[in-house]
Amino acid sequence: MIKINLLPYRAERKKEIIKKQVFFGALPLLAACLIIGLVWWSTNAKHTQVLEDIAVLQKKIEQSKLKMKDIENYKSQKEMLAKKMDIIKTLQKNKSGPVRMIDEISTCLPGNLWLTQFEQKGSSLKLKGSALDNISVSKYMVRLENSANFKDVELLEIKTNKKTSVKGGASLKSFQLQSTVVYNPDGVTPSS
User: In the chain, which ranges are continuous DSSP H helix?
Assistant: First the structure.
């Protein structure tokens, strides 16, 4: 028996060709969408990882800032303590200075001279006293100038006090000296 296809075969063949073209046309489109999706997912994952890394680094930066603040506080405390230690060392070196100065003032006194007052402001020293004669005042000034604890000894005034006199009728001389005090903690004579 002979089979005769009464259906139009061309229309069916056309449908099959169209189906194949749609399938093979959609396959690259589907593959492109899949590749784009993978690239997007990979990029999004990298972006998320970068954001997490940034957050971790920002936390480390904040911790570092706190540590830096602690270090700065430590440095300022260290500087303050170093300054205090320097002041303490200076005070310890200079603590015997006033004692030496007063000792030197009394050691330099000649026999015919008396001190009635002395006043120190900073490194400036004023001495007031009485003497039997001008030579005693001069000797005292020379002795003070040769001392390691005094420099720039100046006679501010000397006058005869006629109201006060000693036996023999000699009048006392009132004088006033000014000098710069040099504290020498090591006992070394300063060089001018």
Answer: 9-94, 97-107, 134-146
User: What value, to the nearest 5°, has the Cα angle with vertex 181 and ends 179 and 184?
Assistant: 150
Whole-number pLDDT of residue 163: 67
The answer to whether the Cα torsion of 141, 146, 147, 150 is positive or negative is positive
* Closest-CA residue to 117 (of 130, 104, 107): 130
| Predicted TM-score (pTM) of this structure | 0.48
Mean pLDDT, consecutive 10-residue stretches, the chain (192 aa), reads 70 84 87 94 96 96 94 95 92 74 84 87 88 88 87 87 65 87 58 40
- In angstroms, rounded to a whole number, what is the distance separating the alpha carbons of residues 133 and 170? 9
Spacing of C-alpha 62 from chain mean position: 25
Q: Which is nearest to 179 in space by CA: 109, 102, 127, 104?
A: 127
Name the pairing type of β-strands 124-131 and 171-181.
antiparallel
- Strand (E) or helix (H) holding 127: strand 124-131
Nearest to 187 by CA among 119, 105, 99, 106: 99
pLDDT of residue 42: 95
Euclidean distance between CA atoms 144 and 138, whole angstroms = 10
